[in-house]
Amino acid sequence: MHDIEPQGCSICSCPDLNWKKHAVEPITGIEFPIVLDSSSTQEKKSSLAPEILVGTGSRTMKIIKIKSLKVYAFGFYVHPNSLCEKLGWKYASNQVYELDKRHDFYQDLLREDIGMTVRLVINCNGMKINTVRDAFEKSLRARLLKGTTVDFRRTADGHLITEIEGNHIGAIQSKELCRAFFDMYIGDVPVSEQAKEDIGKNVASIIRKC
Questions:
Q1: Which of 48, 57, 59, 54 is nearest to 161 (CA)?
Q2: Among 59, 80, 138, 165, which residue's beta carbon has the most beta carbons within 10 A?
């Protein structure tokens, strides 16, 4: 997935944003909604819903030397108002090309309590959740079917909320855990370098319009 036109604006400033539009992760062909509306009642009441898609990617694993298994596709979402509130003052004057390669920019995204979500869509039958995230949480280690949607959401108060198919699984208040989880996608060694670059460009584009 490359630049997405609607990402460059906040929900408040773009009332005509197409809520039904989807983006396709190119390797798996899995679709992700451009706008992610939280299924959590508590989150619906907060100012951190909905969020906007800023990048997609996929996770593959080599099972033999010549074959790779497409484990899951993911969509990375951020809440634009939260993003502008936390980082607009620091980066709004920078050009997009100046930010998407800067280490401190991604570190600020991880450090600040910005509302963001990673949505995983399972792409292979019978996969266990610990393949997605080793030792993340025992209650999640049930067998998942192809097409299962798993959301990991960071809230502004430092909770990491987990939902499977819209069903609340658990919430842990730990800023360190939140940062460690999202570091897998926008940290120094991301699941997908291309996805991280797309995320950086689209997030920078939002900040430019804060």
A1: 48
A2: 80
pLDDT value of position 41: 40
Residue 54's nearest CA partner among 109, 3, 16 is 3
The answer, yes or no, to whether residue 18 has pLDDT greater than 70, is no
Q: Measuring CA to CA, which residue among 203, 193, 202 is closest to residue 57?
A: 193
Among all chains, which residue has been given the structure tokens 């997605």? 132
Q: How far apart are CA 179 and CA 175, in angstroms?
A: 6
d(CA 130, CA 27) in angstroms, rounded, equals 22
Residue written as token pair 């929900």:
11
* Lowest model confidence (mean pLDDT) among 77-86, 137-146, 183-192: 137-146
H or E element at residue 150: strand 149-154
Contact partners, residue 27, CB within 8 Å, separation at least 6: 58, 60, 70, 73
Question: In angstroms, how far is the first alpha carbon of the chain from the final one?
Answer: 23
Give the model's pLDDT for residue 65.
66
Amino acid present at 195: A
pLDDT digits (tens, 9 = 90+) for 20-76: 588 999 989 999 999 987 544 444 444 445 899 999 999 877 766 666 677 889 999
State the residue for tokens 């997009």: 96
